[in-house]
Write a structure and sequence with these properties.
Elements lengths: L3 H12 L3 E7 L4 E6 H17 L7 E3 L2 H4 L4 H12 L3 E3 L8 E4 L5 H4 L5 E3 L17 E3 H6 L15 E4 L4 E3 H5 L7 E4 L4 H15 L2 E6 L4 H8 L4
Parallel strand pairs: 1-11, 3-4, 3-5, 4-8, 5-6, 6-7, 10-11
Antiparallel strand pairs: 1-2, 8-9
């Protein structure tokens, strides 16, 4: 069975320089392209950060970011990094989470909260927040810079939980059964799991790639410019 961390490592070895994810924020007028090598680097740094915060295999990583910004490349990279660390993604707040990952609109970035809070600025180039955060809130972009560039994924049982939300619970074996996408596909983010499946899991399993577009703009022009084939 091919796990998603294994599929990412295979993609890096086989075709690492080709774009894996291209993210458009049409309202902001920004475009961010990540090759498999670049995306894997973000995932590795995330895994190292989580392990440094004592996140152990089987621990829960709460990801409200998957509700507010399901298609953002940062959300996808944090998910991949958590899986490499052997953690389970919970796509919302959870009282038993080892850490909670939030976006820039969450009031906890200024107000703070019990537990370990990781805040993501969602800057198109991965920069941190311009304004000070609450004293007990970690700016993910800043902390990731000091993390090692490589991480050896932790081996987990195929039937251990990889993803859970209000509607489903999926094991690593379930993820591996996702129909692969071999093409370059344009998607518009919806809810957490369908977006994660279409934007990251399916293309990794099928050696495809994804163009993700949020906001209002000319999608046909993007399809042509990005040579979308599926």
């Amino acid at each position: 069975m091919t796990t998603i961390p294994a599929a990412l490592r295979h993609r890096v070895r086989r075709d690492g320089a080709r774009p894996l994810l291209t993210f458009y924020d049409l309202d902001a007028g920004t475009r961010t392209e990540l090759s498999a090598i670049t995306f894997a680097n973000w995932a590795d740094k995330t895994a190292n950060l989580l392990v440094g915060l004592d996140v152990a295999p089987g621990d829960l990583v709460a990801l409200p970011l998957a509700e507010t910004d399901p298609g953002h490349w940062v959300t996808l990279a944090i998910t991949a990094g958590a899986w490499q660390a052997g953690a389970t993604i919970v796509a919302h707040d959870h009282p038993d989470a080892a850490v909670t990952v939030i976006g820039p609109a969450d009031p906890r970035i200024h107000d703070g909260s019990p537990g370990i809070i990781l805040a993501c600025s969602l800057h198109p180039l991965g920069f941190g927040f311009a304004e000070p955060l609450a004293a007990d809130v970690i700016d993910v972009s800043i902390d990731l810079r000091s993390q090692p560039d490589q991480f050896s994924p932790i081996q987990v049982d195929d039937h251990s939980l990889a993803w859970t939300d209000h509607h489903r619970s999926l094991s690593h074996a379930d993820l591996a059964q996702t129909p692969p996408t071999p093409t370059r596909r344009l998607i518009r983010p919806g809810t957490g799991w369908p977006t994660l499946r279409d934007a990251l899991v399916a293309p990794l399993l099928g050696n495809g790639s994804t163009v993700i577009a949020v906001g209002t703009g000319n999608l046909d022009a993007i399809r042509r410019a990005e040579r979308v084939t599926g």
